[in-house]
Amino acid sequence: MSSWNKHKSEISNSEILHRVEELPLDERLRAEDRLHMELHREKHTHISRLELFFMLLGPGILVMVADNDAGGVITYAQTGSIFGLGFFIPFMVLMLPVAYFVQEMTVRLGAVTHRGHAEMIWKRYGKFWGAFSLSDLVVANFLTFITEFIGITVGLSVFGVAPIISVIVFVTLGISIQLFLRYYTWESVSLFIAAFNLVFIPLLFFIPNPNWSLVAESFGTWKISGGASSLFIYVLLANLGTTIAPWMLFFQQPSVVDKGLTKNDIKRGQLDTFIGSTIMVVVAICIIILTGMTVYGTDSYGTIGVAKILQTFATKVGVLPMKLFALGLVEAGFIAAIAISASTSWAVSEAFGWKGSINLPTRDRKSLRFYLPSFAALSLAAGITLIPGAPLGYLNLTVQVIATIFMPAAMLFLLLLLNDREIMGGYVNKKWQNVVGFSIIGFLIIMNALYGISVAMPVVFAHLVSLL
To answer: CB under 8 Å to 446, separation ≥6 — which residues?
Structure first.
């Protein structure tokens, strides 16, 4: 007999309903969601299992698709424009298991503890390390917000929309979606928006005379156009930063909690995350191929500015595909702004012990504390993108690099929590998972160090490269 059935046999349904009604609204809604899922489990029919599967989908797909944010789309477009179809295509395939591995741990942690990521760090390791991790997140999220609005303003400028109009409209939409929708509705709306991220896949069919043999050859050669320069390390770090980022940890774990997943749902949560990881990597590779086959080697070869990339793309492929690309860029920025807003709200509220849930009623004045930090950061970042003459192309890559610099610390806390048997019980990491996890941290640290050397000591860096 399951623990749920055993517990249910001890109390009547009326008692269950009465106890649920006495809970605060956000906890009551979460309890009702879990009860609804338990009832589906008890039916033991193929239809109910299928319904349960679709009910549990969401956090993994959403975090991974939102990871293909405007900053990510721009980074992939810049990568293809600068380096073509060599190293970065097989590298992005390698990023699929890496992204899945990191985010799968948040599924287990959330399902076992029913606590958000920031809350776990503060309560387990104290205020100092809690404040350290929160500071990393808030800074990284704020900078990432800037890249989202870079994508939104540049994408809508293709249609003649003034940047200030783009900013006002999408800040208002982003705030409204988080403020007025409860978790399940919020997630459904977000997934609907995220579906437009797939627009980059059919754009491949617009490429004139595509050379697919170059794509296949890249897996055998891993060719680095121009060699292992400081620019290559810079772009490599940017690709790492847009694939695994601190905000993803602080988003998926509380998302799992708000959705009501339990230990029984871990396998389905892992599948959800794998599906999302696959979508993320496929879309990323498509974008690199798009610009690698159309922009790389042209007069815009080596370009950093996304506006210039779009212009070249329109010349080589056509205006309609370019406009679809621009719409995908807008969608990527918007869905990420929604997800990163939620991660900021969850993390800050958990750190300060405020009630934190997207199920919170907006009529409760205290609940506004949950939303205000992310709304303030969102609005300020949007305003920065309106500064005339800002180097938006380099700013975008730099933000992704900063995310990579912050990621080792974030991953270290995650691994420590996943190895804490007192809170994880039998769901702690296996030895091989720890080996992989610390290997990822080590790789990130080495790449960060190499980039630092390439900037501060270019002669030493050139010598190191000659030894490879």
So the answer is: none
Q: At what angle do helices 458-467 and 431-456 cross, to 10 degrees?
A: 130
Quote the DSSP letter at residue 85: T
**3-state SS assignment for residue 419:** coil
Domain 57-467: which CATH number of 1.20.58.90, 3.30.2420.10, 1.10.3720.10, 1.10.4160.10:
1.10.4160.10
Q: Where are the domains of the chain?
A: 57-467
Contact 81, 295 (CB under 8 A): yes
Is the pTM higher than 0.90? The answer reads: no
Task: From residue 1, give the alpha-carbon distance in Å to each of 4, 5, 6, 7, 42.
Answer: 8, 6, 6, 10, 11
Instruction: Output the DSSP codes for 201-234.
Output: TGGGGGSSS--HHHHHHHHHH---TT-S-HHHHH
Read off the pLDDT of residues 313-350 as tens digits, 9 standing for 90 and up: 888 888 888 889 888 888 888 888 888 888 888 888 87
The answer to whether the CB of 338 falls within 8 A of the CB of 7 is: no
- Cα 316 to Cα 295: distance, rounded to the nearest angstrom: 8
End-to-end CA distance of the chain: 60
Tell me: the pLDDT tens digits for 175-214?
888 777 777 777 788 888 888 888 899 988 888 888 888 8
Angle subtended at Cα 399 by Cα 398 and Cα 401, rounded to the nearest 5 degrees: 65
Sign of CA dihedral 104, 110, 116, 119: negative
Quote the tokens at residue 349: 């509220």
Q: Count CB atoms within 10 A of the CB of residue 415.
A: 20
